[in-house]
Amino acid sequence: MNPEQLNNLIEKCKAGQSEAFNELIDLYANRCFGFFYRLSGSRDTAEDLNSELFVKLVEKISSWQGNSFDNWLFTIAGNLFKDHLRSQYRQRKMLAEKAKSVIVETAPEKENDMEIRLQQALGRLEPDIAELIMLRFYADLSFKELAERRNEPIGTTLCKIHRGMKKLRELMQVGGVL
Amino acid sequence: MKENKNDLKALIEQFMDSQEAARMAEEIEEAQEMLVAMPAPRLSDQSLDALKQRVSRRLAVPARTIRPAATIRFYLSSAAALLLATVGWVMLSNQKTAIPVDLLASTAHIWEDNATSDSDPVNTLMTKIEAVAGQVESIQGKNLKWFEDDSNLSTEIESLEVIASSTDFWKG
Asked: ipTM score of the complex?
């Protein structure tokens, strides 16, 4: 869908057309779900957050100013995830500890384990850096957009993503996946 | 991704030398390829339908009727508070502070007393000294009851001695 078609679709959403929202869900729901899933590591949490995101979208879509919709949508998604992190901080810490012990104790046997290992590796990154990588990947944002979004120099954003991706690969290699 | 490999290398070269930039771009690309190779699971059709239904239900809720009501309530209460504060301030600033007559009289009396004292401090002091001297004399003139009759005193001492000798409460 080109930018003009997307703008038209959003205008219909602003008018409260249910079909337009369904189309928007078809376009973005899986990407947003993937973003939440990679960050939370839980299908249920990702579905809940995704659902919350689209309900919020209904409430906020009239405030969209016509700039990058992807950037705007994933800003809301990122804020939702941060709220979720705050409320689940202790539980998450406990789960991360558990995930570390699983890495040491078990070895991957099936192809499906790659998926588990990736989630564990993402869980071991700093939440801030994991979010940056996921925004780069799922929101398809450029480094310039990411830097602007975070009010930091582009060099800083580049360094953070490089460091995070390098660590991600190392963790996957240590796990014997790559 | 917005930048391809060459764009990425060019971007990184702004911060470091060409060789280092190429290596860094390569590492980022490899990690991105790894993520592409392992896509996240997708929503099931059932979940997608449930999401659409939830959004439709939310759209059906007349949000516009809720929001203006809340906004009107907020502005009305703010205006009422402002009005009350203004009325209170105006009333307080216009109020004349009348001093009660009896308070003025009592204040004048205090000043009169002080004027007398200030004019003749020696007399006042002498009067007070004489009053104290009179009190001392009256105390000295009185005999204490215990010493009025010696027999009472000796009886009391004897009874205390008996108690002390017959009991051992004092031993602790």
From this structure: 0.78
